[in-house]
């Protein structure tokens, strides 16, 4: 494929700060709040070069919430490609702008050819999935690799340098046993990013592979939080890069090429336990540095601190934790601490804050505890609480778990209960008016991973109906209802009705044996039920009552 660099997008930082990623088209997104703004997005058929065009007006406020995929690896890829076509195209466009600051067509073609050949020979499930993405989105296999896995697949060296901004990318937690209420296995993560980056716009994905475990993921293939049907939870936080330390195990650089975010979903489809997942994640060649939190329902939990070609695996107790593990963006391994020193002023207060919130409820930690800790806009450090959570030094820093930097923000938050297979998702901030995500309600929705698409969707409907019922009962008690509350309530009730209509259509498609059409329609239905939960809560309270 012949491509041309575009001077207007030659600066990577400009691209990332200005890029807005398309949601689904308005006819497929009943919750869209804008008109038809679809421009000539950067579609990438075989005969079209990169022209830098994408829809800059669509944002996370009007993206579809959930997509389902099911069947063979190829079928799942095709379904994801067709449902996330605009998001993938925009992600591809932004990545190409990055690539052309560092590489030319020859390097691109060589790298993509090598990667595809490797997958076809050694990892056929990944090859089939990418082939399905290409088929569903109408792009080449080479472009599917880039759209899904990012610029790091071109040249991992480009991603393996220290950037102070990397110290602001996400944080995660796992908790179990004596730390939690009734011994439940919990996990959670913040995804922090520039709000206009494509990762902010991808829908959540619920996958039911014929060959593998079902997985629920809050941000699809571009998110940082994954839970499978066995209760295995994998979450990720980025980390700074440094040279490998003496004695660290070195990863074979000729191993499998996988971008981190895709890799964690893939590992969750293949592994039942934390031990299996750690083995897979440390034997495969990942691209990024970072902290990988892996835990399961049997009380096994690990945190993998990974650099470009080395890793250290730690567990609870190594640094004083008891039945919990927390990671921001710095390394705890003593031999690596100096390597991530510049990440400390930002990372350590965020980790300390979440730890303090959890320790205050030691033995009684619930999903709401994790939500409150990850959503804290103040921070705890050096034995005291501070209300002012950001400053300006050599670069902007935020010190609270909920991202409040001028550029980097918490885009969405995920809380898992691996015992009950529940996922809670917040788009934007707990503090509504600090959020960079348009139309955010500052409330969570809940999805429960069922044995199939129909069961997961039905539970989402039940939760939506309960939320609307509770909102109506609360509003009825008020002497007067303001216009904003009434608007949110009507939006919630309307979303339930729309979701039920989609459900009827999905059930019909499923009965006729059309699993692909059923997946699309169940996705649209569940998206409506998720939004109904948020709108209902927003109509009468700022509390996250969905947790109850």
Automatic annotation (TrEMBL):
Record keywords: Signal included?
yes
Signal peptide start and end residues: 1-22
Please give the superkingdom of this protein's source. Bacteria
Task: State whether keyword Protein transport applies.
Answer: no
- The UniProt record lists the Peptidase C45 hydrolase domain at 211-357
InterPro entries from the xrefs? C45_proenzyme-like, Peptidase_C45, Peptidase_C45_hydrolase
Classification via Pfam families:
AAT
PROSITE patterns from the UniProt entry: PROKAR_LIPOPROTEIN (PS51257)
Q: Keywords assigned by UniProt?
A: Signal
Could you tell me what this protein is called? Answer: C45 family peptidase
Source species? Adlercreutzia shanghongiae
């Amino acid at each position: 494929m012949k491509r041309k660099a575009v001077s207007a997008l030659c600066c990577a930082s400009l691209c990332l700060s200005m890029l807005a990623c398309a949601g689904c088209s308005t006819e497929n997104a009943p919750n869209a709040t804008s008109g038809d703004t679809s421009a000539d997005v950067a579609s990438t058929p075989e005969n079209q070069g990169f022209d830098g065009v994408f829809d800059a007006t669509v944002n996370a406020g009007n993206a579809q919430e959930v997509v389902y995929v099911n069947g063979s690896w190829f079928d799942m890829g095709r379904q994801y490609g067709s449902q996330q076509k605009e998001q993938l195209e925009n992600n591809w466009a932004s990545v190409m702008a990055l690539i052309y600051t560092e590489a030319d067509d020859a390097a691109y073609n060589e790298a993509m050819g090598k990667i595809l050949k490797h997958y076809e020979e050694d990892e056929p499930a990944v090859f089939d999935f990418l082939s399905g993405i290409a088929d569903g989105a109408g792009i080449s296999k080479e472009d599917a690799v880039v759209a899904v896995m990012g610029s790091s697949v071109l040249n991992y060296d480009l991603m393996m340098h220290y950037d102070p901004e990397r110290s602001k990318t996400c944080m995660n937690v796992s908790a179990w046993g004596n730390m939690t209420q009734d011994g439940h296995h919990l996990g959670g993560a913040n995804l922090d990013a520039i709000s206009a980056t494509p990762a902010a716009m991808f829908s959540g994905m619920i996958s039911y592979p014929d060959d593998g475990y079902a997985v629920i993921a809050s941000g699809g293939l571009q998110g940082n939080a994954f839970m499978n049907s066995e209760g295995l939870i994998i979450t990720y936080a980025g980390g700074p890069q440094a040279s490998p330390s003496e004695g660290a195990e070195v990863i074979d650089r000729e191993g499998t090429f996988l971008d981190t975010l895709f890799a964690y979903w893939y590992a969750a489809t293949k592994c039942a336990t934390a031990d299996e997942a750690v083995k897979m994640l440390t034997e495969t060649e990942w691209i990024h540095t970072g902290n990988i939190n892996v835990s399961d329902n049997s009380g096994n939990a690990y945190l993998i601190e990974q650099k470009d070609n080395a890793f250290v695996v730690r567990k609870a107790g190594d640094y004083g934790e008891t039945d919990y593990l927390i990671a921001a963006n710095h390394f705890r391994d003593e031999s690596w601490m100096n390597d991530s020193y510049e990440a400390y002023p930002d990372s350590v207060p965020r980790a300390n804050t979440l730890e303090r919130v959890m320790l205050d409820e030691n033995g009684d930690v619930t999903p709401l505890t994790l939500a409150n800790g990850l959503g804290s806009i103040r921070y705890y450090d050096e034995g005291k609480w501070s209300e002012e959570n950001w400053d300006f030094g050599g670069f902007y820093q935020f010190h609270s778990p909920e991202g409040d930097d001028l550029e980097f923000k918490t885009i969405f938050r995920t809380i898992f209960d691996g015992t009950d297979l529940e996922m809670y998702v917040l788009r934007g901030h707990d503090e509504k008016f600090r959020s960079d995500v348009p139309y955010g309600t500052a409330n969570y929705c809940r999805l429960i991973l069922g044995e199939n698409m129909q069961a997961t969707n039905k539970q989402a409907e039940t939760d939506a109906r309960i939320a609307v019922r509770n909102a109506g009962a609360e509003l009825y008690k008020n002497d007067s209802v303001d216009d904003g509350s009434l608007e949110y309530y009507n939006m919630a009730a309307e979303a339930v009705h729309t979701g039920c209509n989609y459900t009827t259509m999905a059930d019909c498609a499923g009965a006729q044996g059309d699993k692909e059409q059923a997946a699309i329609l169940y996705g649209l239905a569940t998206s409506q039920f998720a939004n109904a939960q948020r709108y209902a809560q927003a109509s009468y309270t700022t509390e996250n009552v969905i947790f109850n």
